[in-house]
Amino acid sequence: MFRATIDADLLKDSVESLSVLVDEARFRISPEGIAVRAVDPANVAMVSLDLAASAFDEFSASDCEIGMDLTKLTDILSLIDKTDKVLIELDDMSQKLSIQIAGLSYTLSLLDPSTMRADPRIPQLELPAEVIMNGKDLRRAVKASEKISDHMLFGIDGEIFYMEAEGDTDRVRVEMSRDQLIDLKPDDVHSLFSLDYLADIVKPVARSNEVLLEFGMDFPIKISTTFANGALKVGYLLAPRIESD
Amino acid sequence: MFRATIDADLLKDSVESLSVLVDEARFRISPEGIAVRAVDPANVAMVSLDLAASAFDEFSASDCEIGMDLTKLTDILSLIDKTDKVLIELDDMSQKLSIQIAGLSYTLSLLDPSTMRADPRIPQLELPAEVIMNGKDLRRAVKASEKISDHMLFGIDGEIFYMEAEGDTDRVRVEMSRDQLIDLKPDDVHSLFSLDYLADIVKPVARSNEVLLEFGMDFPIKISTTFANGALKVGYLLAPRIESD
Amino acid sequence: MFRATIDADLLKDSVESLSVLVDEARFRISPEGIAVRAVDPANVAMVSLDLAASAFDEFSASDCEIGMDLTKLTDILSLIDKTDKVLIELDDMSQKLSIQIAGLSYTLSLLDPSTMRADPRIPQLELPAEVIMNGKDLRRAVKASEKISDHMLFGIDGEIFYMEAEGDTDRVRVEMSRDQLIDLKPDDVHSLFSLDYLADIVKPVARSNEVLLEFGMDFPIKISTTFANGALKVGYLLAPRIESD
User: Fold this and answer.
1) A129-238 has which fold?
2) What does the alpha-carbon distance between residue A137 and residue A92 come to, in Å, rounded to a whole number?
3) Per residue in B162-198, is it b (16+ CB within 10 Å) or e — as a string?
4) Cα distance between residue B171 and residue A17, in whole Å
5) Which superfamily is assigned to A2-114 in CATH?
6) What CATH number should be reported for the domain whose range is C2-115?
7) Segments in B79-230 forming alpha helices (H)
8) So what's the pLDDT on residue B92?
9) Per-residue pLDDT at B181 exceeds 70
């Protein structure tokens, strides 16, 4: 059993957070809310999403799992206003999802979660360096780097956090001191990441004022943020690329 | 003889009403105004346009017919502001049309109306059900249906007008009661239509606050509206599709 | 040695003025400012740009020449706000250019100016007719002509300046009298030009309130304007096309 009402805005943010990495996802629903853990097809990046029951105007659910086609959901949500309310209801008998928005009523077939990829195990990592920064600053650095290269270095040098990309002939570098960041826990580390993935991850994240980056020495980076006063938590884990010398 | 001045806005609406269905059209001009009747190349939909002499700032004409390339006209109108005044004048000798807009002067060759398709005969139909609704509501239902299917059902069930589309696995349905509509003359009927055509027809129609739908049981649908306080009347007749079971 | 700070806005205008004709350019830098002279690959049009030292917030330079990839520069500038300040600095040792904008720092390799095409010699021409007009009016005439033809005639007939394009069947003509222009020095001349080139040239020029056209009888046309109170001067010279009868 599952029946819930939510702001279109917050539902759009949730779906986009997932759809930048995967085309379909298994939603684990419980009385506490909705959780998703998914890995991209190439096993390079992982997304975790936690949408608390408190994020909804109305939320009643027993434990269940549903599989959703995110492309289809994105299509539907593209038609509605940010201020619309969305009523979502699971028909247990038919295993169809009913979505009602401002007079429109959709009935969507679900994917069988048992045929979908198992949830990934989230690795326990010691990531010594931490940066909290504005999402817009992160996106700008990623966009600038994309013009030059296909990978990007995140690192800390003393008290300076830097992001850097190097092309065949050109280079872009952003340096941010402690006072240009919201918070900094320095450590003498750096890691290289694929800009293909970063460009996707940064899209939903850039809407947030506070993005937490956790990284280490040639370790994965964890990029996480929250929306709706913490009711929606989104986190990405992105594998490093090996630096060639 | 034909010489007329009109608001760019109203001329754009007129041309778009036609160009969603046909690439060229025969304009029948008389002292009362301009009338067009045209059928799309596949004979599925028909458009009728009536632009009264009163829609013009200045209008003087004797009976004549001219053939126009609508693609070319759309191109030209795309450059001008909605608030511009357009002076149109027919040179009887050269059979060219002069269009003057804010200092620009176009001279367009006309198509020979005698080589163009004859005007369609508009069938007399008894269409028992009538709905008057906001153009925006109609467009939203059509857009939502396009995401799911390539055809769409219009019907009335008791006092409820509904629009519905069904894909292989998914379904969208809009239900509107009498108080969500401007007017309703109910009848227990429904008909299925091609969304390709509906999507085109809905573009000009959606700008109107009052769109009249007339339909029956597996009969064509008539979609009509007016602009400029009735000085421009636009109507479409769209053939039904046969429902497969 | 070269180090300068400039408004992003003015730098964008400068780069666009060049990039509509050429992909790379040689910048001649001196204590007085920056000058560029370049010809398009087909030798049909020439651009000259003069950016005075006074256009910069800070400008210190000794005589030098640098070759720049304009596509790369346009890419970088597309990311920044019009109100940003841009610091440009040449590293004489590495022959790299450092560009710093709001915390982003780019290091760009330069092209070797000795391998680039030599600066064109600007021909001395007697162009008897002169028109000064608003950039927007010029752009509108060019856009209207593009719909009809691939070349465009500029001419003066008595006290009337006209721009005209003729397609296979259609014609567009703009006539402007002395009071619709900012200035007119009439002469009984006309010349035909390629709309491919005019459409490109008109893009940066259209932002200016005063564009000077100088032309003659089947002679090149000179199209020039200034920005930033004359601190940036941009001029184009476009070869005529031969009129076929």
Assistant:
1) Proliferating Cell Nuclear Antigen (3.70.10)
2) 45
3) bbbbbbeebbbbbebeeeebeebebeebbbbbbbebb
4) 25
5) DNA Polymerase III, subunit A, domain 2 (3.10.150.10)
6) 3.10.150.10
7) 135-146, 195-205
8) 85
9) yes
**Which residue's structure tokens are 């780019």?**
C106
What is the chain B residue with the closest CA to A79?
Answer: B144
Domain with CATH 3.10.150.10 in chain C: 2-115
Beta carbon pairs, A and C, within 8 Å: 37
Chains touching B, CB cut-off 8 Å, 3+ pairs: A, C
Q: Are strands C171-177 and B104-109 parallel, antiparallel or unpaired?
A: antiparallel
Chain A residues closer than 8 Å to B147 by CB: 72, 75-76, 79
pLDDT for residue B224: 97
For B105, nearest residue in chain C (alpha carbons): C173
Q: What's the pLDDT score for residue C82?
A: 83
Which residues of chain C have a CB within 8 Å of the CB of A140?
79, 104
The whole-model pTM stands at 0.88
- pLDDT classification of C243: cutoffs 50, 70, 90: low
Instruction: Judge: B180–A108 Cβ closer than 8 Å, yes or no.
Output: no
Q: What angle do CA A226, A229, A233 make, to 5 degrees?
A: 25
Q: Where in chain C is the domain with CATH 3.70.10.10?
A: 129-232
B-chain residues near A105 (CB < 8 A): 172-175
How many helices and strands, by DSSP H and E, does chain C display?
4, 18
Q: Which residue is listed with tokens 């005639």?
A: C153
CATH class of B129-232: alpha beta
User: Which of the residues C137, C148, C161, C177 would you substitute to probe the B interface, choosing the one with the greatest number of B C-beta atoms within 10 Å?
Assistant: C148
The pLDDT of residue A245 is above 70: no
> Residue C2 corresponds to which amino acid?
F
CA distance readout (Å), B99 to B69, B86, C172: 14, 7, 9
ipTM: 0.84
Question: What is the signed CA dihedral for A114, A115, A116, A122, rounded to 10 degrees?
Answer: 50
For residues A223 and A213, the answer to whether their CB atoms sit within 8 Å is yes
Nearest CA in chain B to C166: B107
- Looking at chain A, which residues constitute the CATH 3.10.150.10 domain(s)? 2-114
Best residue in B70, B107, B110, B112 for a mutation probing chain C (most C CBs within 10 Å):
B107
Residues 6+ apart with CB under 8 A from C51: C10, C14, C33, C34, C35, C231, C232, C233
Residues of chain A within CATH 3.70.10.10 domain(s) are: 129-238
Rounded CA separation B153/B120 (Å): 26
Structure tokens at C198: 């005019």
Given a contact cutoff of 8 angstroms between Cβ atoms, the answer to whether B221 and B238 are in contact is: yes
Residue B34's nearest CA partner among B243, B208, B233 is B233
What is the residue whose two structure tokens read 């340096």? A175
